[in-house]
Design a protein that fits this description.
Elements: H1 2-10, H2 15-25, H3 29-36, H4 41-54, H5 85-109, H6 116-145, H7 163-180, H8 188-209
Helix pairs in contact: 2-4, 5-6, 7-8
Length: about 210
């Protein structure tokens, strides 16, 4: 049977010869009656399928074991600087606030009539772009290195081994911070930088007490 069906499959697949083969070896009377009704595209396709189903199914060859490569060691996460985290979180709050403001400003562009208000809104959007861009850079740097970039910290000539100098410098920065807070909308970045330095100085002062 197997050789006869294979020869038919390899030939021009004469319909009548195929029906004869299925009549001899097939078991479905329904199909035999259907094939006997004459050739059609459906009957020819079904006849081919039916004869193929009569062939014995070969057992699949055993597959070779696949070698699974050992996972590459993941790079260790950068060690975060605890002193920078509070300031980083504050900066990210500012970033989200600026992003929200920019989204709202863009939405209002089509609602504000042409004139001074539209100009002010457009200028504000332009002001937000570099601020958000810088905060995006800070975010990426912190997530990569675990600390804030050095440029956020003002260079100080204070003798950091002298506790009195540290306290004096911190007091000066606190005074400057109070002055800048009177106009926070125009001094956000400088305020953030000073706040970071105040926190750093506080940690140094505290460590000198130990």
């Amino acid at each position: 049977m197997e050789q006869e069906i294979k020869r038919w499959l390899a030939s021009d697949q004469d319909y009548a010869a195929g029906v004869a083969l299925y009549d001899q070896y097939g078991s479905s009377n329904v199909r035999k009656r259907m094939f006997a009704s004459g050739p059609s595209s459906f009957n020819s396709e079904k006849l081919l399928q039916s004869l193929q189903e009569l062939l014995p199914v070969k057992a699949p060859e055993p597959t070779k074991p696949v070698k699974i490569a050992a996972p590459k060691p993941q790079p260790e996460a950068p060690a975060s600087n605890p002193a920078h985290q509070p300031h980083y979180e504050e900066l990210m709050k500012q970033r989200q606030s600026l992003l929200d403001e920019r989204t709202l400003a863009h939405a209002r562009l089509n609602m504000v009539p042409e004139g001074e208000k539209l100009l002010q809104l457009s200028l504000r959007i332009l002001e937000l772009v570099p601020q958000i861009k810088k905060l995006n850079y800070i975010r990426k740097f912190y997530l990569t290195h675990g600390c804030l970039p050095d440029e956020l910290f003002p260079k100080s000539k204070v003798d950091e081994s002298d506790k009195a100098s540290l306290i004096q410098h911190r007091n000066n920065l606190r005074t400057k911070r109070s002055r800048l807070r009177k106009h926070p909308e125009t001094n956000e970045q400088e305020l953030a930088t000073i706040e970071t330095e105040i926190q750093r100085l506080t940690i140094l002062i505290t460590s000198n007490d130990k």
